[in-house]
Structures are given as C-alpha cells and as structure tokens.
Amino acid sequence: MKPYKNKINRIRSFALGLIFFGFIIMYGAIFFRENAILVTIFMTLGLLSILASTGVYLWIGLLSTKAVQVVCPNCGKHTKVLGRVDMCMYCKEPLTLDPSLEGQEFDQSLNRKR
Ligand SMILES: [Zn+2]
What we know:
Elements: H1 7-28, H2 36-66, E1 68-71, E2 78-81, E3 85-87, E4 94-96
Antiparallel strand pairs: 1-2, 3-4
Bound molecules: zinc ion.
Organism: Psychrobacillus insolitus
Keywords: Cell membrane, Membrane, Transmembrane, Transmembrane helix
InterPro entries: UPF0295
C-alpha cells in the first residue's frame, strides 16, 4: 500500500477526524462532571476541535475551486487534481498536470518546486 492519497480526500479525512476527536473529548467531560473546571476545559477543547474542522471544511471548499478537474485515464471518472501531482480520488492512479513529470515514479515531493 502506498501512503499517498488524493489531497482533497486526505484533508477531508483529517477534518472528519477532528470532528470525532472533538466529540470524544466532549464525551470525556462526562467522566469529570464532579469537577467544573475539568468539564469546562474538556468542553472547550472539544468545541475548538469541532470549530477547527469547520475551518478545514471551508479550506477544502476553497481548495476545490483551485483544483483542476480532469478525467482519469485509468477509470474514466472525473477527479480533481491539486498541485503538480495528485492521485485519482477513485482508483488512486497517479496523475500529473506537468507533461515533463509524466511516467515518473509518483512522489509527493514533486509538488515542491525545485
Ligand atoms: Zn481513476
């Protein structure tokens, strides 16, 4: 398994993780209900991570407008490419917008300008 994922999908899973994290922390506050300070801290942390994930979702929205929509040559579906190299959202086919990188081993570092 390659560790690479489509960037938009990856950010989306990160935002989802933040929401879960927030809810778990807020749920954890129940165990400290005797202690008002701890409850406040846990609730605030939980709320903050949920707010953060909302921010990340907004960021995805912004990124999506910048992403280039292409038809994947492998599975024929419409996918979004972010940066110089990215992966198909559906079949994980490496895609590039830069013809000079075509056929090269997929590498996340290719996104960085050299
Ligand atoms: Zn594909």
